């Protein structure tokens, strides 16, 4: 893979650039080097439990220069998806308070009483009442949308249940799977970014730690990708016939950019 010809570097965060509140090896050098070479670095995360501002602040706090990157979350992508595909819909939203405000500020009509779309994001304030309400709506047949499919979220203390786990619970209760899953591996999220930055597939590379989201998203979008083994995936989990580059961590990219 020739990284010189790439213009847009789409990078996962958890398990790829940092783990919890610790930058992974090579993170600062890679961000600095990409900026010096005039490349775009976009952090694309499926984690919709925080706003893009939160991630921006976190990265800056960890020492990454603000002008070296942009952030795009599956929460933002879900807002775009709703506005394009379900304009004017009334949305029952599972989300943390800050993400709820982001949906409202973007003009999404949230409805508790008469929703016709049910959206699940990574709601760490989820409780039995919310889940019961959500399952009731799904059972009644409203359009069911999930921000992303991750089963667990990696943390410094080990994996914690993510949206995919709740989707399994919803499936068990209602018999339905989501009508749309917006985040990785849906290639639309990557296509949206390529369009925004005016780059082609061959000018883009995706870097991440998960086969079933990061690598799959790139494959479906026709984009080359790099798997890092610093997060969820171990070398034993990599299939023999993989079509992506596999590296231990992003530090080995420094000499290739
Ligand atoms: Mg990750």
Structure commentary:
With 257 residues, the protein is of the alpha/beta class. The chain has helices at 27-36, 52-61, 74-85, 97-105, 128-140, 163-174, 187-197, 211-221; strands at residues 8-11, 18-19, 22-23, 40-45, 70-73, 90-94, 109-110, 117-120, 143-146, 152-153, 160-161, 180-181, 204-208, 224-228, 245-247. The strands form four sheets. The protein has a six-stranded parallel sheet with strand order 5-4-1-13-14-15, with helices on both faces. Strands 7-6-8-9-12 form a five-stranded parallel sheet, with helices on both faces. Strands 2-3 form a two-stranded antiparallel sheet. α7 crosses α8. The longest helix is centred in the middle third of the chain and has 13 residues, at 128-140. The mean pLDDT is 96.
Q: Which key features would you list for this structure?
A:
2 domains; Rossmann fold; 257 residues; 15 strands; 5-stranded parallel β-sheet; alpha/beta
């Amino acid at each position: 893979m020739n990284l010189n010809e790439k213009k847009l570097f789409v990078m996962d965060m958890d398990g790829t650039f940092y783990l919890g509140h610790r930058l992974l090896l090579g993170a600062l050098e890679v961000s600095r080097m990409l900026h010096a070479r005039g490349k775009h670095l976009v952090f694309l995360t499926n984690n919709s439990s925080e706003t893009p501002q939160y991630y921006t602040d976190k990265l800056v706090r960890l020492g990454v220069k603000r002008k070296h990157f942009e952030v795009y979350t599956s929460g933002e992508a879900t807002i775009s998806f709703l506005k394009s595909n379900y304009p004017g819909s009334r949305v029952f939203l599972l989300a943390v308070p800050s993400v709820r405000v982001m949906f409202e500020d973007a003009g999404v009509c949230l409805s508790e009483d008469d929703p016709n779309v049910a959206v699940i994001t990574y709601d760490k304030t989820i409780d039995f009442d919310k889940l019961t309400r959500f399952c009731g709506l799904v059972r009644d047949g409203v359009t069911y949308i999930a921000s992303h499919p991750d089963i667990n979220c990696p943390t410094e203390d080990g994996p914690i249940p993510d949206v995919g786990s709740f989707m399994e619970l919803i499936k068990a209760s209602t018999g339905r799977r989501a009508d749309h899953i917006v985040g990785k591996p849906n290639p639309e999220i990557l296509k949206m970014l390529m369009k925004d930055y005016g780059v082609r597939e061959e000018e883009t590379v995706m870097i991440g730690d998960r086969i079933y989201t990061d690598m799959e998203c790139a494959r479906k979008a026709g984009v080359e990708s790099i798997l890092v083994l610093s997060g969820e995936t171990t070398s034993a989990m990599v299939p023999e016939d993989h079509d992506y580059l596999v590296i231990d961590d992003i530090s080995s990219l420094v000499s290739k950019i």
